[in-house]
Amino acid sequence: MSRLLVIEDEFFVAAHIENVLSDDGHEVIGPVGTLDEARALARSEELDGALLDVNLDDGRIDEVADILTGRHIPFMFVTACARDNLPAAYRQSVVVPKPFTDMDLIREVRRLTQ
Questions:
Q1: Is-contact 5 61, C-beta < 8 A?
Q2: What is the CA radius of gyration of the chain?
Q3: Is-cis flag, bond preceding 31, omega within 30?
Q4: pLDDT (mean) for 15-21
Q5: Is the torsion defined by CA of 73, 51, 3, 92 positive or negative?
Q6: Which residue among 56, 80, 89, 113 has the highest number of C-beta atoms inside a 10 angstrom radius?
Q7: What is the pLDDT of residues 64-84, one digit of tens each?
């Protein structure tokens, strides 16, 4: 079982991601929808990976991506943003575009956690 941090500020999207990942056997940390919570968990939790929305109500996710990178924790973006709107250093990262299918999400999470 993988421990995955989910950062998503849209309640229904976050709940859906949590259900899909839990049903696939993953332990979900969060979901969280604020940058303060995201930074705190990215720094403190033992994680196998993370799913990041790019834009939260209180700002962009860039610093959280930096924290995860510094800890060597793989992550992917789950976002409606175009690739050129990703943090510049992470434009080659895996992106699951919203809206997504459950199978697309599961496939990319399994690749991320291999």
A1: no
A2: 12
A3: yes
A4: 98
A5: negative
A6: 56
A7: 999 999 999 999 999 999 999
CA of 47: how far to CAs of 6, 17, 80, in Å? 11, 17, 24
- For residue 75, give the H/E element and its range: strand 75-79
* Per-residue pLDDT at 97: 97
Superfamily of segment(s) 3-112: Response regulator (3.40.50.2300)
Q: What are phi and psi of 41, to 5 degrees?
A: -70, -35
Both tokens assigned to 27: 């332990």
Ordered by start, the domain boundaries in the chain are 3-112
Q: pLDDT tens digits, residue range 49-60? A: 999 999 999 999
User: Model-level pTM greater than 0.70?
Assistant: yes
Neighbours of 22 (CB within 10 A): 13
Sign (positive/negative) of CA torsion 61, 15, 100, 46? Answer: positive
Residue 50 CB contacts under 8 Å (≥ 6 apart), including other chains: 4, 5, 6, 7, 42, 64, 68, 73, 74, 75, 76
